Structure formats: structure tokens, C-alpha cells
Amino acid sequence: MQNTLKAPVTFDGTGLHSGAPARMTLRPAPSNHGIVFKRTDISLGNREIPALWHYVERSPLCTRLVNAAGVSVSTVEHIMAAIAGCGVHNVLVEIDGPEVPILDGSSAEFVRGIMRQGVRRLADSVRALRVMKPVTVENGDARATLLPCDRLKIEFHIDFAERAIGRQTRTLDMRNGAFARELCDSRTFCSRADVEAMHKAGLALGGIPGENAVVFDGAEVQSGGGLRHTDEPVRHKMLDALGDLALAGAPLFGHYIGDRAGHSLTNTLLRAAFDTPGALEEVRCDNVMIARLPGQGLVWDEIPAVRHVA
Ligand SMILES: [Zn+2]
């Protein structure tokens, strides 16, 4: 059956790009509500923004949702990954500004907050989307693909000039709380040159190297105590992919392959999948299918404590 949170949970922090303080509260919501953001700092007009692929405004650095009234919320990918990775279907996300707090740059604190409250079962069955035929999109040397699969599998390949990143590859079957165990604590990252370019463009104003982002400079790593995994960057790209795929509006049964992909290309992939006749099929999950969804079987002890490997 569908579920929601047992009780509200609040996160306080700073927006990565705006640098503005942000308070965000996840509230329980009824069946078939889905994930919806609500701007509490705006009092007039439509201030709700559904977390769906067609509300995404193209933005290379983060995922930004905008409703018809022009009301937006940015950097939704890490909270969306936490909600999807914990297998929660219905949440109202109240936020008092235009950007989700970045916290430590990962989804770990969101996962702990959701798990601390726990979930409550609702009366309706879970609606999911099954990938029925391959869909691929490309942009330059970046590519993103969805293939049919009886569970959600995320595969990612990256290749960065920074020697401390280089080539990294990982594939993960997202069943059984794998997201919380293997991906949720991996932090956002960039190169020193990116930081300078973003600051010039008035972005990443809330970024603190080593505190809420890992910064790579050639062979050097600024990461506040070291990396949390030797391949933390590719794990973070998988986390982002889960968050961006969650904008399908329902859990996906499919194999996602990202090759140097980013937020914008994953959104292009979702648009292509919804635009391709017969590529996605809506299904109501039986018990066997539910057991394969991310978050099923997740237990508190599997959520990683913050630790460093290097
Ligand atoms: Zn990210």
C-alpha cells in the first residue's frame, strides 16, 4: 500500500546557491497526493509546486521546479532522492524560501529524519511506472538511457579531468534500502575551477568547501576529514539520478544508465520516456512488486554514520 510519514520532520540549513537560510518541513499527506512543495513565505496565489518532471526548468547545476505562477523551488534533488530511497509516496514539503537547505551536501540527514519519524500505511495501492522499451538521450559526450528491468537499477559512469576523480563506474540494485546503505551519505562535489566560475555567476554562495561540498583541485581533495567513499563522486551522481528520476511521479521499474549525465539530461530522458508511445506502462503494485521497491526492508541500523575512508 501507499504510505506517508507518521509525523512532520523539519530541517534547518542554508541554500547552496542562494546562501539564504532555509527551513523545510516534511508533512504527512493522503493517498495519491504525491510529493508537492509549498512555499510558505508566499501568501498570495498558487504557491504549491508538484515534484513532477514537467515542472522542471532547465538548469545545469541543480534541479529547479517552477509552477505556472512562476513560483519556484531549487536544488530539490537530494530531498527527492531521500524520499524515493526511503520508499515514501506522499509528502507535503513546506519551505520558507526558494531553495532546499543543502545540509552536508548529501541526503544522509534527510534519510535519518524520515526514518526517525517512520512511515504510516495508507489505504490505496502503490502506482508505479514500468519501462517497456529502451529510451536514450544524448548531449555531446553525455548519454542517459532507460531499459526495461523488473526493479530499479541505477548505473553510472563518470570521467573527470581532476586526477582525484578520474573514471568511476558503479551499478546498484535499489532494492532493500540499498540507497540508504550505499549512496545517501555521498556529498555533492565540484572542481576548484567550477567554484570560481559559480562565484563569478553569483552561484554557490552558500557553498563551504569540505562542509557541504567536496572540492577537487587536480590531485587534491578539500573534503573536511577526507572522502566518505573512495568513489564518493560517482555515488553522488547516482544519488542525484535517483532524485531526478523520482520526478516521474511514481516509483520506476527500469535500468537507468547515466554516462557523464547530469540533472538536465536525466530530465530530458524522462521527457523522452513520457513522449515515446509505449515506453512507460502504469501498473498497480502487487506484493511481489512492492518488495522490489527502494526503501522496502530499510532498517535504522543500516543508515550509515558519518565516516571517512581517506
Ligand atoms: Zn547532487
From TrEMBL:
Entry GO CC: membrane
Superkingdom, taxonomy of origin: Bacteria
Top-level enzyme category: hydrolase
Gene Ontology molecular function terms on file: metal ion binding; UDP-3-O-acyl-N-acetylglucosamine deacetylase activity
Involved pathway(s): Glycolipid biosynthesis; lipid IV(A) biosynthesis; lipid IV(A) from (3R)-3-hydroxytetradecanoyl-[acyl-carrier-protein] and UDP-N-acetyl-alpha-D-glucosamine: step 2/6
Catalytic residue positions: 263
Stored InterPro entries: Ribosomal_Su5_D2-typ_SF, UDP-acyl_GlcNac_deAcase, UDP-acyl_GlcNac_deAcase_C, UDP-acyl_N-AcGlcN_deAcase_N
Protein residues bound to Zn(2+): 78, 236, 240
Keywords, in A-Z order: Hydrolase, Lipid A biosynthesis, Lipid biosynthesis, Lipid metabolism, Metal-binding, Zinc
Keyword Lipid biosynthesis carried by entry: yes
Cofactors, names only: Zn(2+)
EC number from the UniProt entry: 3.5.1.108
Functional note: Catalyzes the hydrolysis of UDP-3-O-myristoyl-N-acetylglucosamine to form UDP-3-O-myristoylglucosamine and acetate, the committed step in lipid A biosynthesis.
UniProt protein name: UDP-3-O-acyl-N-acetylglucosamine deacetylase
Species of provenance: Epibacterium ulvae
Gene label: lpxC
